[in-house]
Amino acid sequence: MTVTESVRSALEQGKVESHLNPVGSFDVADHPVPTGREEIWRFTPLKRLRGLHGDAPFNRSTTSCTWTAPEGVRVEGVDVAAEPWMRGLAGWMPNTRFAARVMAEVPSSLLVDVPADLEVAEPIVISLKGEDATNTEAGHVAMRFGAHSKAIVVLNHEGSSSIAAVVEIAVGDGADVTVVSIQDWADDAVHLAHHQARVGRDASYKHAAISFGGDVVRMDANVTYDGPGGSAELLGLYFADAGQHIEHRLFADHNAPQTKSHVVYKGALQGEGAHTVWIGNVLIRKVAEGIETYEENRNLVLTDGCRADSVPNLEIETGEIAGAGHASTTARFDDEQLFYLQSRGISEAEAQRLVVHGFFNDLIRKVGVPSIEDRLLTTVEAELAKNVLKEIAG
């Protein structure tokens, strides 16, 4: 086991009790192989995960990993035996078998270490490119941001791979951190991921999950707080084509007073069998007085044969809060919007393109990384060209 006993003991005392987040454990034996009947797995097509949720071997990686390391930032592969503090860095215990296996079995981690008070001008970009979707593998990333530091990290996933991954993020007091994870895999890829962040006192944390490619992508994006005043913004954008399954699950655990969380996820679906899942959950503990939280999910269905599941949840243990709410919608194109545009001489194809861009535009701007914003606009255009515009033109 690579987790130190002191870390294990501290985490045991802070176990989460939530119907959507089973009690965690570092021991793999405490996590049976999912059957699909469990609440947290009932939407996921387990047969398409190539065993990553169960006992598929974590083989030697065929996914290349390169990165940029701005001056003053440490980015390198590290043997966990030499620096065991990296496991449990985010103050969390795995609540799935695959995450527990990653923590126990993967011998090394990719470390991103930003010292206190350092402001990094350019994004730290980590590029992962898969070469073999038949090879099941796993990885662990540890990100540590010192007090009052400021940085942006981009995880970029491309190519063909079958990978289980855990990303732990520790945001120091007063730090300002953005983590963007882009899943732009080839059509045969499978990506099973858990991102866990611990946000320090008066710190700001933004996480953006952007999923376009892959056969199956399932990502958890969770956050807890290490003191009052912390703020988390969880953003997501996804576009599912025929046969794709894209699933995002969020958990904001307000375990400290005067904390904030704001969740906005938007997705579009097109093509037969396209399936998206969004599960949002906010737990407001008894000690979390004065918190503010809001979560919303919007889905735009572009063609017949699609399915979007959207389930927002609030679990509230105290009435002393500043505000809490959620919203969820799934709808087709607004006929009135299309009619208005077409009545002014705009073609049906162009009208649909404008509506989709308008749907995503405000969220894309929230990402806050200009180069990524431009890329997302281009990718949305390319996704539309696959089905919607082609069908209209034909």
UniProtKB/TrEMBL annotation:
This is Fe-S cluster assembly protein SufD. InterPro entries: Fe-S_cluster_assembly_SufBD, SUF_FeS_clus_asmbl_SufBD_core, SUF_FeS_clus_asmbl_SufBD_sf, SUF_FeS_clus_asmbl_SufD. GO terms for biological process: iron-sulfur cluster assembly. Belongs to the iron-sulfur cluster assembly SufBD family. It holds the Pfam family SUFBD_core. The gene is sufD. Residues 135-359 form the SUF system FeS cluster assembly SufBD core domain. It comes from the Bacteria.
